[in-house]
C-alpha cells in the first residue's frame, strides 16, 4: 500500500493517567470527554482516591480523536494529564 492509497494517520485510541478533583463526578467527567470531536468511547477507571483528588485511568477511543480539544476539555474540567500511557494511530486504506 502506497501512502497515496491511504488517508492521513488518525488517533484512534489514547490511554491517559489523569488527576482530577472530586467534582465533577467520574460520570459527569466521562460524559464531557465523550463530547470531544472524534471520541466514540470513554472508559474511566478510578485508581486512587486522595482527600482532594481522584487518580483515574482514562481510555479514549474513536475515529480521528482531536487530542488538542481533549487536552483543553480535561483542563476545563479541573484535571491534569500526568502521563500518556498508550497511543494508537491508524492509517485507513482508501476503498
Q: What can you tell me about this protein's structure?
A:
With 95 residues, the protein is α+β, with helices and mostly antiparallel strands. It has one domain: Alpha-Beta Plaits (2-Layer Sandwich). It has two helices and four strands, in the order E-H-E-E-H-E. The chain has helices spanning 26-33, 67-76, and strands spanning 10-21, 39-49, 53-62, 80-90. The chain has a four-stranded antiparallel β-sheet, with helices on one face. Strand 2 (39-49) and strand 3 (53-62) form a beta hairpin. The longest helix is centred in the last third of the chain and has 10 residues, at 67-76. The chain starts with 9 loop residues before the first strand and ends in a 5-residue tail after the last strand. The model has no long low-confidence stretch (mean pLDDT 93).
Question: What structural category arises from helix and sheet content?
Answer: alpha+beta
The average pLDDT score comes to 93
CATH architecture: 2-Layer Sandwich
- Name the CATH homologous superfamily: MTH889-like domain
Distance between the termini: 12 Å
Question: What is the CATH topology?
Answer: Alpha-Beta Plaits
Biggest sheet record: 4 strands, antiparallel
Radius of gyration, rounded? 15 Å
CATH class: Alpha Beta
Total domain count: 1
Unreliable spans: none
SSE string: EHEEHE
Proportion in helices: 10-25%
Overall geometric form: elongated
Count of individual beta strands: 4
Approximately what portion of the residues adopt beta-strand conformation? over 45%
Tally of DSSP helical segments:
2
State the strand order across the main sheet. Answer: 2-3-1-4
Amino acid at each position: 500500500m502506497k501512502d497515496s492509497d491511504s488517508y492521513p494517520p488518525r488517533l484512534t485510541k489514547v490511554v491517559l493517567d489523569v488527576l482530577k478533583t472530586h467534582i465533577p463526578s467520574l460520570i459527569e467527567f466521562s460524559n464531557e470527554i465523550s463530547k470531544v470531536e472524534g471520541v466514540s468511547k470513554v472508559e474511566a477507571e478510578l485508581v486512587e482516591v486522595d482527600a482532594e483528588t481522584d487518580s483515574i485511568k482514562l481510555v479514549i477511543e474513536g475515529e480521528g480523536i482531536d487530542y488538542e480539544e481533549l487536552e483543553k476539555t480535561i483542563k476545563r474540567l479541573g484535571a491534569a494529564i500526568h502521563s500518556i500511557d498508550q497511543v494508537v494511530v491508524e492509517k485507513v486504506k482508501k476503498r
